[in-house]
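U., I forgot to send this yesterday:
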Amino acid sequence: LRLVESGGGLVQSGGSLKLSCTPSGFRLEGYTIAWFRQAPGKEREFVAADRWFARGTYYGDSVKGRFTISRDNAKNTLYLQMNSLKPEDTAVYYCAAGSSGSAYDSTSYDYWGRGTQVTVSS
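Result:
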């Protein structure tokens, strides 16, 4: 059981990208789904999460108002729409799915993707 990310790439500052994440071997219904990112030399950082049961969305302070997390249950796919990108958004972005614990805590998630690189040039 795993997740597969796509949609990363190189974009200029101020541009947009949309990341996708598709699970292999399970469906996303019932899971809290999230995006994290990790820049070189830095710890993994919470980006956004969407809870299934509480029906709430959560964002890290650095991306609020610019990024939007969503899921399409029919397509069994998780998305992250990223607008107004900044060079400091450059990182490997990971999607994750979990069933309990804090949405902000990476240890709450059971399934992870291998990541997709996002690079924002100035």
